[in-house]
Amino acid sequence: MRALEEFKKCLLEEEKSKNTIDKYIRDVKHFLEYAGEAEIEPQMVRAYKEQLLENYKVSSANSMLIALNHFLRFIGKPECCVRSCRQQRRIFIEEERELSRKEYERLVSAAKSEGKHRLYHILQTIAGTGIRIGELKYITVEALKERRVQIHSKGKIRIIVLSGAVVQMLKEYCRRFKIRAGSIFVTRNGRPVDRRNIWAEMKALSAKAGILKSKVFPHNLRHLFAKCFYEKEKDLIRLADFLGHSSVETTRRYTMISSMAVCEKQLDLGLLLDGVDWGNKITT
After folding, report:
1. Could you tell me if 166 and 203 are in contact, meaning their C-beta atoms sit under 8 angstroms apart?
2. How far is CA 13 from CA 30, 32, 86, 98, 226, in A?
3. How many CB atoms lie under 10 A from the CB of residue 50?
4. What's the pTM value of the predicted model, to 2 decimals?
C-alpha cells in the first residue's frame, strides 16, 4: 500500500488528470489483489494478462495493462512489463452506441420541454465546442468576452474558439440567471457541476427523448462534434487541434463510419458480374 501511495504521488508530479490517476490506482489495486502476498514475477504478470483477456474486452484489458506497466516500472520491475494485445482496427461504430444528429436534437428538445435549463445549455455547449465534460469549468463569463476558452488539461494548454452562436446562447443564459463572473455552469453553492450528476440527468432524459440509454452520455456529444466537423471540413489535423489530441490516430477513431450498413454500401464497387448465363456448363 505504501508503494501505491508513492505511485499516486508520482502520477501527480507527472500532472496526470484526476480521472487518469483514479483509473491507474484502481487498475493497480486490481492486480495487487490478484497477486496477494506473492512476489511479483514475469510469469505471474503474464498469467494475470491472460485472466484479463478472459474477462474483459481487449481494449479494456489493454488499458489496465498500461496502468500496470507504469506501476511496474515505478517499483523497479521493468522486466515484468507485458505487451498490450494487438487488435484489428475498427472500421465502424455499433449503431446502438452512436448518437445521431437527429437523436441529439431530440435530446436537447426534451431537456427544454422538461425545464432543465442548465442541462439544455450544457448539451449544446459540449456539442458545439467538442470539449470534454471535465472541461466545462473553463467555460466562463470572461471567456465569452474573449470569444475563446483556454483549457488546461493533461499537462497541456489549448485554445478553443467559441462560435458566435455559442457565445450568444451562453450570454443569454448568463443574463437570465444573473451569472456575472467565473464558471457558467455551477451548482447552487457556486461549485462547478459534477460530471456524475450530468451523466445521471442525461440518462434520465433518454427515455423522454426516445433514445437508447447506451447512446446517451457526455462523451458522445464530443464524438458528434468531431463527426459533424469532419463531414463539413474534411480536415483531420485541424480537428485534432480542436479536440486536444496529440495523435491524429486518436482523432481518426472519432470519425469512424457510423454503421456496418454504410460500410457494406461503400464496398459495393460494381465488380461482381450479375446475370452471367453459365448454361449447363459447370466447372470448379
Report:
1. no
2. 23, 23, 30, 36, 31
3. 11
4. 0.65
